[in-house]
């Protein structure tokens, strides 16, 4: 800009003046030294002033004179060079100014949006101070400089100083991640000032020894395997003031703690794995760490993103999009979104969700579905993050067994509203068991809680755990959905009794689910639906630890209570919810999940060459001819994770999702494998006759409509989905094996 040019000229003039003054002073010093030297040779000087000026004061005078002369010459040379630079810069400035007045919008087919962006800048460049921050001053040239050097919509201007492409030296070797030996530094990183942060730090301290033991075990199993240390930003968006932070004030009043339990465990796991963390719970800190320029968020970041990974939630994702400008699109592949209920592909793809009516408050981000990380493994389309429950040692298990009270029940739910309308169930339960509650209240007992219930009020975690260790039954009344407490109860030797929802709860009949970006089982009329309060406990644990019954059937409900009282159960905790299980899972994700390498995506049908379409399939029929597997004679195996050796291709029945189809074969649906079976040849290999084959955008494809012999392949890779079914289609389903107790990982995934 003109101001910066003036500043440069003034700076140069000032520098030249300083150098000239230095030269003059050195010249004056030399003259005085010369006079002293002449006086030294005078006998009168020696005779009269010998006492005041000893001779040895002048012995080094000749050498000093030479050094001063050399300095003076250097200063003089520098002053001449500054003069030359100044003349050249003034001359170039005039040329540049002339060019600035003559800038024209280039017509380059490689930059089709350039003219439109310049037009926008003419009208709107003052709408955000960030443009002026990057040097935009209203001239055509400043627009083009910005759009070619800060953003990338216009070609570089030929008269701008272009840095010569010099081969950059290879990056230095990355620091290696080392398992940490204590959690003190993490507690400092989390900070203070919010009840939610205090709760998370208490949880981390309480589980510290379990994390340390788990880290030692995993370290031994990995046997010194190299792990690059990642720079990770953890931004907990729902705790920022800008998002309302409704959670912190309710921590001490019975509010939901599930999200904070999960975030505490994520922080502990990332830290114990040895990665470098930054933790933020404010928008200002987020902007500072990202390098957001001053303004309203329309410009890119001021420097390359300094983080390899960013863990955040939907609130944080929205904040990043608002403040990162074009950099959000560039770096969104590094984001991992902690998403309690999950986001299915049909809701994630903005265009498709809009066309099909799947738009919600939270979906349409166009991320890779595996970037969303859930609390429970209810949808294979997303990554299962999870949390941890406390493990018991042998002594604790024996104490629990000895102290269990077979006639004691604890009700799941800290808010009085959960108890409303449950008098009928409570009356039946009260016939057989002493009922305990942990409902929050300030002064008066909540009227929703019957008098025969022993209400302890809101308990600290340790005391709540002691209550569970005595109780035989932990009973849910339908809400909250999918929280951590049932797993904690089962881990402490309780039986969990919950209601079967008939019909399933969904966005059509329950306000809580409206706007959730998932159907759990997407269909033509997609709705979010769950069959019970805790589907994971129902599907992955089951009897004798979990009983799911129809509460509307009093006889079934009462019979279940009687049977539970007679049933002996041991404390049980699935491996995937132990500290070691969570460390193992997150380690595998960090090592292997890469959403920034475009080669991991399948080629678009539009760009596929005939040679690629006719390439032989690497799949082969299994020995019993029921499904396809990766052929041992394929001759190649892609750098895929999970490894392709775990792949099995099965065809679903009508009305079955791929999730259900794989589960029926003792497998898990693996959406990253869809790209290997999205080919015409696969239909032939499975003896499926196709009169026609079409590429279309549909979350149910690849699939076949058998009654009309029409086959469909997926046109949009972001829509590959394990969820979804339709009576018209049988779907091609990519399945894989899984580690015992760790459904997120295949047997060879570590």
UniProtKB/TrEMBL annotation:
Keywords: Glycoprotein, Glycosyltransferase, Golgi apparatus, Membrane, Signal-anchor, Transferase, Transmembrane, Transmembrane helix. Residues 600-620 are annotated as: Disordered. Residues 130-735 form the Glycosyltransferase family 18 catalytic domain. GO terms for cellular component: Golgi membrane. It catalyses: N(4)-{beta-D-GlcNAc-(1->2)-[beta-D-GlcNAc-(1->4)]-alpha-D-Man-(1->3)-[beta-D-GlcNAc-(1->2)-alpha-D-Man-(1->6)]-beta-D-Man-(1->4)-beta-D-GlcNAc-(1->4)-beta-D-GlcNAc}-L-asparaginyl-[protein] + UDP-N-acetyl-alpha-D-glucosamine = N(4)-{beta-D-GlcNAc-(1->2)-[beta-D-GlcNAc-(1->4)]-alpha-D-Man-(1->3)-[beta-D-GlcNAc-(1->2)-[beta-D-GlcNAc-(1->6)]-alpha-D-Man-(1->6)]-beta-D-Man-(1->4)-beta-D-GlcNAc-(1->4)-beta-D-GlcNAc}-L-asparaginyl-[protein] + UDP + H(+). It is found in: Golgi apparatus membrane. It holds the Pfam family Glyco_transf_18. Pathway: Protein modification; protein glycosylation. It is a single-pass type II membrane protein. GO terms for biological process: protein N-linked glycosylation. Its main location: Golgi. InterPro entries: GT18_cat, MGAT5_Glycosyltransferase. Its EC number is 2.4.1.155. The keyword Transmembrane helix applies. GO terms for molecular function: alpha-1,6-mannosylglycoprotein 6-beta-N-acetylglucosaminyltransferase activity. Belongs to the glycosyltransferase 18 family. This is alpha-1,6-mannosyl-glycoprotein 6-beta-N-acetylglucosaminyltransferase. It comes from Vidua macroura.
């Amino acid at each position: 800009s003109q101001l910066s040019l003036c500043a440069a000229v003034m700076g140069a003039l000032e520098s030249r003046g300083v150098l000239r003054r230095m030269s003059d002073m050195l010249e004056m010093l030399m003259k005085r030294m010369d006079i002293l030297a002449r006086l030294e040779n005078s006998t009168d000087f020696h005779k009269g002033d010998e006492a005041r000026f000893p001779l040895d004061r002048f012995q080094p005078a000749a050498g000093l004179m030479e050094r001063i002369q050399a300095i003076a010459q250097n200063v003089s040379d520098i002053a001449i060079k500054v003069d030359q630079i100044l003349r050249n810069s003034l001359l170039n400035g005039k040329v540049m100014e002339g060019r600035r007045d003559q800038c024209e919008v280039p017509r380059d087919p490689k930059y089709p949006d350039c003219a439109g962006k310049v037009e926008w800048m003419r009208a709107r460049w003052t709408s955000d101070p960030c443009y002026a921050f990057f040097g935009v001053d209203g001239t055509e040239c400043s627009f083009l400089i910005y759009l070619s050097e800060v953003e990338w919509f216009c070609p570089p201007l030929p008269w701008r100083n272009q840095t010569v492409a010099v081969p950059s030296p290879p990056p230095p070797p990355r620091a290696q991640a080392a398992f940490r030996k204590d959690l003190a530094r993490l507690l400092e990183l989390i900070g203070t000032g919010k009840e939610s942060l205090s709760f998370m730090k208490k949880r981390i301290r309480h589980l510290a020894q379990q994390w340390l033991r788990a880290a030692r075990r995993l370290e031994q199993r990995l046997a010194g395997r190299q792990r690059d240390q990642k720079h990770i930003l953890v931004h907990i968006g729902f705790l920022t003031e800008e998002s309302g932070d409704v959670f912190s004030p309710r921590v001490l009043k019975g509010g939901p703690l599930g999200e904070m339990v999960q975030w505490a465990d994520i922080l502990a796991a990332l830290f114990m794995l040895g990665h470098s963390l930054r933790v933020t719970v404010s928008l200002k800190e987020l902007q500072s760490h990202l390098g957001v320029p001053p303004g309203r968020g329309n410009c890119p970041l001021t420097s390359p993103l300094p983080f390899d990974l960013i863990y955040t939630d939907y609130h944080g994702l929205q904040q990043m999009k608002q403040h990162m400008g074009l950099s959000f699109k560039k770096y969104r592949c590094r984001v991992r979104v902690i998403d309690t209920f999950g986001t299915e592909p049909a809701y994630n793809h903005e265009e498709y969700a809009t066309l099909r009516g799947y738009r919600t408050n939270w979906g349409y981000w166009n991320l890779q579905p595996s970037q969303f990380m859930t609390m429970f493994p209810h949808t294979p389309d997303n990554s299962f993050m999870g949390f941890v429950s406390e493990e018991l040692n042998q002594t604790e298990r024996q104490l629990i067994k000895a102290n269990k009270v077979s006639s004691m029940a604890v009700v799941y739910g800290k808010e009085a509203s959960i108890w409303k309308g449950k008098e009928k169930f409570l009356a039946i339960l009260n016939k057989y068991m002493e009922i305990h509650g942990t409902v929050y209240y300030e002064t008066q007992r909540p009227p929703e809680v019957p008098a025969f219930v022993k209400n302890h009020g809101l308990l600290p975690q340790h005391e709540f755990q002691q209550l569970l260790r005595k109780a035989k039954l932990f009973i849910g009344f339908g809400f909250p959905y999918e929280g951590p407490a049932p797993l904690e109860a089962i881990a402490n030797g309780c039986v969990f009794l919950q209601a079967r929802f008939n019909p399933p709860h969904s966005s059509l009949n329950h306000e809580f689910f409206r706007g959730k970006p998932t159907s759990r089982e997407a269909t033509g009329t997609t709705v979010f639906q769950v069959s019970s309060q805790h589907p994971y406990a129902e599907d992955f644990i089951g009897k004798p630890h979990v009983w799911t019954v129809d509460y509307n059937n009093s006889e079934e409900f009462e019979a279940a209570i009687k049977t539970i009282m007679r049933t002996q159960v041991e404390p049980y905790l699935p491996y995937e919810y132990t500290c070691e299980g969570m460390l193992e899972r997150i380690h595998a994700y960090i090592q292997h999940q890469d959403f920034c390498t475009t080669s991991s995506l399948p080629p678009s049908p539009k760009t596929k060459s005939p040679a690629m379409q006719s390439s032989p399939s690497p799949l082969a029929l299994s020995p019993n001819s029921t499904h396809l597997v990766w052929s041992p004679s394929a001759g190649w195996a892609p750098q895929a994770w999970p490894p392709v050796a775990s792949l099995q291709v099965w065809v679903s029945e009508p009305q079955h999702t791929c999730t259900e189809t794989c589960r029926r074969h003792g497998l898990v649906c693996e959406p990253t494998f869809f790209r290997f079976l999205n080919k015409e040849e696969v239909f032939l290999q499975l003896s499926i006759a196709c009169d026609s084959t079409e590429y279309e955008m549909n979350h149910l494809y690849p699939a076949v409509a058998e009654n009309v012999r029409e086959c469909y392949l997926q046109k949009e890779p972001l829509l590959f989905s394990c969820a979804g079914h339709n009576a018209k289609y049988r779907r091609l389903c990519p399945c894989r094996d899984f580690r015992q107790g760790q459904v997120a990982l295949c047997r060879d995934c570590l």
